[in-house]
Write a structure and sequence with these properties.
- By secondary structure, the chain is α+β, with helices and mostly antiparallel strands.
- It folds into 2 domains: 51 residues; 83 residues, Pantoate--beta-alanine Ligase, Chain: A,domain 2 (2-Layer Sandwich).
- It is built from 5 helices and 4 strands, in the order ααααβββαβ.
- It has a 4-stranded antiparallel sheet.
- A hairpin with a 4-residue loop joins strand 2 and strand 3.
- The chain is rod-shaped, with a radius of gyration of 30 Å.
- About 3% of the residues have low confidence.
């Protein structure tokens, strides 16, 4: 719809411009009445654009703005579950991306992705990253992430 309005706007400006040219005498073969008609048409189309243009409302809780606090809470809850696992169980997560969805307190579904990596292979420390998004644009821009690091002895860093 925006492109139609843009073309109407450009057409209106062109009509006004041509009408002003006719009135000012640059186009001697046209009458002043024709110029007035073009100017009138241009302003008429501009008026229509103004009437059909709807003011945009701010979008609260829209699909492109994730609630960071809820995403944080979802991620921390998942980290809390992972912290209860043994080092060997977390090590089994390496090389396998796990995904699941949970419902947030706002009623929206949040996607959780869990990945495990070597934080420092020589020391054996594992790093587990939990990424949370709501499926909107935040999934592509910047999901919320939380991290835990566990040593082979099971100590959390």
């Amino acid at each position: 719809m925006k492109s139609k309005k843009a073309w109407l706007f450009l057409g209106a400006l062109l009509a006004i411009s041509v009408g002003v040219d006719f009135i000012s005498g640059y186009q001697h073969e046209h009458s002043i009445l024709e110029g007035i008609i073009f100017v009138f048409l241009g302003f008429f189309v501009l008026g229509i654009i103004i009437l059909i243009a709807k003011p945009t409302k701010p979008r609260n809780n829209s699909r492109d703005h994730m609630n960071e606090q809820i995403a944080y809470e979802v991620a921390r809850a998942e980290i809390g579950t992972l912290e209860q696992m043994s080092y060997m169980d977390l090590k089994k997560l390496m090389g396998h991306r796990q995904t699941k969805s949970v419902e947030g307190v706002d009623g929206k579904m949040y996607n959780i992705e869990i990945q495990a990596f070597w934080d420092n292979k020589s020391s054996g420390n594992l790093r587990v990253i939990v990424a949370v998004d709501d499926g909107g644009l935040s999934a592509f821009r910047r999901p919320h992430t939380e991290t835990l690091i566990m040593t082979p002895s099971g100590q959390l860093l």
